[in-house]
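Reminder: ligand-aware prediction takes two inputs, not one.
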Amino acid sequence: MRLEFCGLGKQFGEQQALRDVTLTIPEFQSLAIIGPSGGGKTTLLRIIAGLEIQEKGYLCINGQRLEVDEEALLAHRRTIGTVFQAYNLFPHLTALENVVLPLVKVHGFSEREARDTAGALFARFQLAGHAHRRPAELSGGQQQRVAIVRAIAIKPRFLLFDEPTSALDPEMTAEVLDFIAELRGEGRDLIIVTHNMGFAREVSDHCLFIAAGEVQEAGQSSDLFRKPHNPLLVNFLAKVLRY
Ligand SMILES: Nc1ncnc2c1ncn2[C@@H]1O[C@H](COP(=O)(O)OP(=O)(O)O)[C@@H](O)[C@H]1O
Ligand SMILES: [Mg+2]
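Here is what comes back for the chain with adenosine-5'-diphosphate:
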């Protein structure tokens, strides 16, 4: 997919979350967004998802400008699979119902179609044995895999992940990142905000470094990690790669 940002600005009260982000990201399949906390990563991801509206500028996805009227945004949101930090499943529903319900209520599937779709995905991704458990009966990694299955069930144009492993221990982090890498291997397009530099470097072909509301550096992941230029990025990598 391709992305183009043109003078994007977003403010929350006094806080300038994004300032004049102007950038074209050429064809990529997996884009990693990295950077310090509070830098604007989530805000950018939410604007791409159509969940937040910028005050200034615009963005194009695959050459098509994202219109910001409510109707267009609503339609846009339905075409994207989003996965945020862990534990966003409905606690009172089983894993399977967590996938079935939005298909029926939001995406207009019949009950039967929704169950068939969800059942097939659970089988394919080794979750069939967990289908009838509630989130509290699943590990964090399993819960997050269910959330990812929920995102791909709608056959999204692309997937957005915001720190999908930040609430998980290392073993479960690997389980979830392996799953995301598998989806990338299937040819799905994805954008991921992550603190996992190994994943950003190895699995993503493109990388953005955002700090202080600005894209400080962008490029092929291999180049960006091998030869970072921006002093903020050099400093950031030194810090996160120290331990
Ligand atoms: N809904 C909000 N209300 C007020 N301030 C916000 C809101 N969302 C983000 N911010 C502020 O915008 C800045 C960027 O936040 P965010 O995009 O969440 O950064 P990151 O994901 O990189 O940690 C931060 O200073 C944050 O406090
Ligand atoms: Mg964030």
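The CA atoms of residues 78 and 129 lie 28 Å apart. The chain has two domains: 3-79+157-240, 93-156. We will return to this case in the review session.
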